[in-house]
């Protein structure tokens, strides 16, 4: 173990639900204080905050209402965490969205369903999925360096990429672009680990059963429950915790072709671990890609692509 989360403090954005909520829960269960930053809390997240709300006990969870597209509110996350807990040790800029209709390449600014106004000069999807993790990472590094971080006083930043960081997807090109960018961003910060004791890593999940999917029928039509396996948020969070605490990760999820996985992956700054029903290290060069491992497939994606062709055939962009 290179770094125990016991007695440490974490900031996790988007932890009001899904993968980030599971990560927050696992941090708390391992003795780490957590500031949950999100626009709101689903009932299960509120229950978690209530469970760890006692200021006289440790660990503790607090909720900070945060719009991750507003930089001032990102700064406030750190200010509140330091006031409540002291030094910040772990940061997960996990808030993200798939390509919802309100910010979508195929439903451009100015169309009836888009919240991206033609005169705003911004795509909400890029602000949430890419600009927010970049800015949060800048803030985290700044705070970490003020704490005299070194090889014996380590810090960690865990990002959420995706198998979309390698795969193309006609129906969601902006989302795909953001996840390619996150993987490249994480790898570019690899040297901070050895030089500054700041480990920047990422998970690249497959098809995860979270509200990001289950609350959106337009996405669920891409998945055939008879053919496609769902990955759980807890499975992804387990790997995220390992990226923080361990110097190596064994294949801790599921099996491949009926055989338990035994491969061991070294972990250091810049590591990107794909999480489907198995775990594998994603290489920066000549990687074979996610393939059709269980947990990586959405067999009926053509249904959503058909909608794109319909839009294009109806005078798209006019």
Your description of this structure?
The protein contains ten helices and twelve strands. Helix 1 packs across helix 9, helix 3 runs parallel beside helix 4 and helix 4 packs parallel to helix 5. Helix content is 35%, strand content 16%. About 3% of the residues have low confidence. Strands 3-2-1-4-5-6-11-12 form an eight-stranded mixed β-sheet, sandwiched between helices. It has a two-stranded antiparallel sheet with strand order 7-10. It has one domain: Rossmann fold (3-Layer(aba) Sandwich). The chain is of the alpha/beta class and 318 residues long. The protein is globular and about 60 Å long. Strand 2, helix 2 and strand 3 form a beta-alpha-beta unit. Belongs to the short-chain dehydrogenases/reductases (SDR) family. Keywords: NADP, Oxidoreductase.
Offer a quick outline of the entry.
It is built from ten helices and twelve strands.
Which key phrases capture this entry?
318 residues; Rossmann fold; eight-stranded mixed sheet
